[in-house]
Design brief:
heterodimer; A: Ubiquitin-like (UB roll); Fumarate Reductase Iron-sulfur Protein, Chain B, domain 2; 2 domains; five-stranded mixed beta sheet; two-stranded antiparallel sheet; 10 helices; elongated; B: Flavocytochrome C3, Chain A, domain 1; eight-stranded mixed beta sheet; four-stranded antiparallel beta sheet; 16 helices; 22 strands
């Protein structure tokens, strides 16, 4: 089926303003947005720039705005969109570098600020694991499947308005560790979380929940953290 | 050219590179280069588990694990390396747990373990519960954990830097040169120690589980530097890739009890591996599936049925396991089958076919990750390797499932420790001036191509033909034809046309460089496959169907000599287990 892809183009080196360029691709059943971009790059315009790697929804490279919503290009079937004109744009909220690639430095910086690792001064047992009940693992399991694709943070209006807001992805990581029974790091993360550019910048708009390709509900984790932080005060 | 200096430079940010970096960063200035971002490395796509004889659910012990690894390797694995893997694996898993790795748990709160192909109790008696897992996200959680630990220990990351040159002179490594993808421009990295953790090369094949990034860059650069590659003819096909796109459906699915069914709905593995059935090792299972397809028992799509064309896939059936259990232990499989096969695994079987997955061969090195330059184990000073890009050799002719996540982490750790021990004896070596000039000239070439060949078409021609002529079953005629095809494609490559002349984020040039690597090491894979006149592990020759220990119980070592590839051989280290016929 012939489908028109309106692709966001921007090459600062070549000068000029960002624009949409039309490409027509003969899409086969089962083809994804990434397949279409691949075909455009292969046979229509080799200078088209996008990030990709695993093409199976686990590396998070190919998050982009597809017909207005943040998605992974690799797991989005063209047919499933039920449109013959498809807009493909870079993730909003980040500075475009070139075409569909954006500057993710602020995303990683925010992640690093919330101390994304286990904090526990107690030495672990020797020659065996710490005990954690299956339901304790279940509590954090879905949060551990975050692939850092940045879809959620990029979809968040609070982040658009406040670029110092750490954003839902970093807070999902904070949830994943704070609610891990092996972690004692709540106090260490409080400074970044209990802050108007931290948890309290989340106004439960919930775009992030729709954007997440791994079915994580960042808003839920953020709400748990808000509660924990308030409890901690008294 | 910008010049950086770090005591240790690691190329690749998957499990092996990050685990080594974590070790090094506690003692020295450590930089990690990756052509993507660390959390996007392909280690994250590993699903089913990480092998370690913890014995949390049975009476497993390391000797069983070692035996299975050796037998799985079709006795080509070096047994000192397999022994280290089996013995140290539990400690490596406990250490990950202590760092905060989220593992699925047994009812009493220990690390959960599941069955995997070729892993047995009591030397082959029955399947062992050995693969430590986090649902079907095991590689993902370990990769992210190691990345987070590296952040904690202030590892310096250079993300989106693509290595383009390895500088080795007089058997001493002096550094590497990389291209800054985002801004354009060459950067020299001087280091006392350079470690390759550059991963595998599934992208030489049309149907593969591998990421677009898995183009064997490190292997080709090693070859170009005059160093050998070991056992490159052994390419693992994973039995269960999603039909037509090759995306991985974890072996953990069969570990949880999934069936493989042919078009008659028959569990055909009973004819190939009556004891272990679907949990036979990957080489045998992939061959069994291919045999079913070749002999007309493959399943058919509705179109194939209509046109009376033989089917070219089999079914992976999970439906009898129940939706609740599937959602608990294989949640990713649900998404993958739905998104890439349009299948609900709780209700219907998934069409699958074997898919290029793992490279047993690679950069030869010692059990401490020191790269060697010949069959006498002469060490290249300052150069190290671990993970899929290297060949210790733990996996010999066929790797067992859940041994690669363990291999990468465990040997990454060992290599990191060896680097720390060696550092006091290493210095920043002088860079030969011609190395920078040559790399400059090479990059200029990519920005000034004027030919008429399309790079993607060349890549597809390679991938199609490798699949057809150098896949699961091989023979001399096909392999020789393939060698001719690779040579011809190498020539066409000299005439490629690239349109993009921008320096910033020029992925067209990056992909062209990767294509060059694919073409170069594929020649070594094919030559190794032509020369090895026997069938062993993943290398199945229809014209030499038997294993030949008298002549071929040895590793191949391939060198580039001018335009030719020269083969040398290295003996296999055998300690506890003498080669026997492999039955499951």
């Amino acid at each position: 089926m012939k489908t028109t892809f309106k692709v966001y183009r921007f090459d600062p080196e070549a000068g000029g303003q960002p624009r949409f360029q039309d490409f027509v691709v003969d899409v086969q059943k089962g083809d994804t947005i990434l397949d279409a971009l691949y075909e455009i790059k292969a046979h229509q315009d080799g200078s088209l720039v996008y990030r990709r790697s695993c093409r199976s929804g686990i590396c998070g490279s190919c998050a982009m705005k597809i017909n207005g919503l943040n998605k992974l290009a690799c797991e989005t079937q063209v047919e499933g969109l039920k449109k013959n004109v498809i807009y493909v744009e870079p993730l909003p909220g980040f500075k475009p570098i070139r075409d569909l690639a954006v500057d993710l430095e602020p995303f990683y910086t925010a992640l690093h600020r919330i101390l994304p690792y286990l904090i526990n001064p107690e030495p672990p047992p020797t020659d065996k694991e710490r005990i954690q009940a299956p339901e304790e693992f279940k509590k954090i399991e879905i949060a551990t499947s975050c692939i850092l694709c940045a879809s959620c943070t990029s979809s968040c209006p609070s982040f658009w308005a406040d670029k110092t807001y750490v954003g839902p992805a970093a807070l999902v990581k904070a949830f994943r560790y704070t609610y891990d029974t092996r972690d004692e790091g709540l106090d260490n993360r409080l400074g970044v979380m209990d802050n108007k550019h931290g948890l309290w910048r989340c106004h439960t708009i919930m775009n992030c929940n729709d954007a997440c390709p791994k079915h994580i509900f960042p808003t839920e984790g953020i709400s748990f953290l808000k509660r924990r932080v308030v409890e901690n005060r008294y | 050219m910008t010049i950086h200096q770090h005591e240790v430079v690691i190329i690749g940010a998957g499990m092996a590179g990050l685990r080594a970096a974590l070790e090094v960063a506690k003692h020295a200035d450590c930089a990690v280069l990756t052509k993507i971002f660390p959390s996007r490395s392909h280690s994250g796509a590993a699903q089913g588990g990480m092998g370690a004889a913890l014995g949390n659910l049975d009476n497993d012990n390391w000797e069983f694990h070692m035996f299975d690894t050796v037998k799985g390797s079709d006795y080509l694995g070096d047994q000192d390396a397999a022994e280290i893997l089996a013995k140290e694996a539990p400690e490596v898993v406990y250490e990950l747990e202590h760092l905060g790795c989220p593992f699925s748990r047994t009812p009493d709160g220990k690390i959960a373990q599941r069955m995997f192909g070729g892993h047995t109790l009591n030397f082959g008696e029955k399947p062992a519960l050995r693969a430590c897992y986090s649902a079907d996200y095991t590689g993902h959680v370990v990769l992210h954990l190691l990345y987070e630990q590296c952040v904690k220990h202030a590892v310096r990351f250079y993300s989106e830097f693509q290595m383009v040159s390895l500088i080795v002179k007089n058997n001493v490594c002096r550094g590497i040169i990389a291209w800054d993808i985002r801004n354009g421009g060459l950067h020299v990295f001087r280091a006392k120690a350079v470690m390759f953790a550059t991963g595998g090369y599934g992208r030489a094949y049309k149907i593969t589980t591998n990421a677009h990034a898995n183009t064997g860059d490190g292997l080709d650069l090693v070859l170009k530097a005059g160093l050998p590659l070991e056992d490159m003819e052994f390419v693992q096909f994973h039995p269960t890739g999603i039909y037509r796109n090759g995306i991985l459906m974890t072996e953990g699915a069969r570990g949880e009890g999934a069936y493989l069914l042919n078009k008659y709905g028959e569990r055909f593995m009973k004819h190939y591996a009556p004891t272990l059935m679907e949990l036979a090792p990957r080489d045998m299972t992939a061959r069994a599936i291919q045999t079913e397809i070749n002999e007309g028992r493959g399943c058919q799509t509705p179109e194939q049925k209509e046109k009376d064309i033989p089917g070219d896939f089999v079914n992976l059936d999970l439906t009898h396991l129940g939706e609740a259990r599937l959602r608990e232990v294989l949640p990713q499989i649900f998404d993958l089958a739905r998104n890439f096969a349009g299948v609900d695994v709780a209700k219907e079987p998934t069409p699958i076919q074997p898919t290029a997955h793992y490279s047993m061969g690679g950069i030869p090195c010692t059990t401490d990750g020191r790269v060697i330059s010949d069959a006498k184990n002469t060490v290249v000073r300052g150069l190290y390797a671990a993970g899929e890009c290297c060949c210790v050799s733990v996996h010999g002719a066929n790797r067992l499932g859940c041994n690669s996540t363990q291999d990468a982490t465990l040997y990454g750790r060992r290599t990191g420790r060896a680097i720390v021990r060696d550092l006091s004896g290493l210095i920043y070596e002088d860079l030969p001036p011609e190395s920078q000039k040559d790399t400059h000239a090479e990059m200029d070439w990519y920005f000034n191509t004027h030919g008429g060949e399309n790079a993607t078409d060349i890549r597809h021609a390679l991938q199609d033909s490798m699949m057809k002529n150098c896949g699961i079953y091989r023979n001399e005629k096909d392999l020789k034809e393939q060698l001719g095809i690779v040579k011809e494609l190498q020539e066409r490559y000299q005439k490629i046309a690239l349109k993009d002349r921008s320096l910033q984020f020029n992925t067209e040039v990056m992909e062209a460089i990767e294509l060059g690597h694919l073409l170069n090491f594929s020649e070594v894979v094919v030559i190794g496959a032509i020369e090895r006149k026997e069938s062993r592990g993943a290398h199945a020759r229809t014209d030499f169907p038997k294993r030949d220990d008298a002549n071929w119980l040895k590793h191949t070592m391939a060198y580039k000599a001018g335009d030719k590839i020269r083969l040398d051989f290295k003996p296999v280290t055998i300690t506890r287990f003498q080669p026997k016929e492999r039955k499951y």
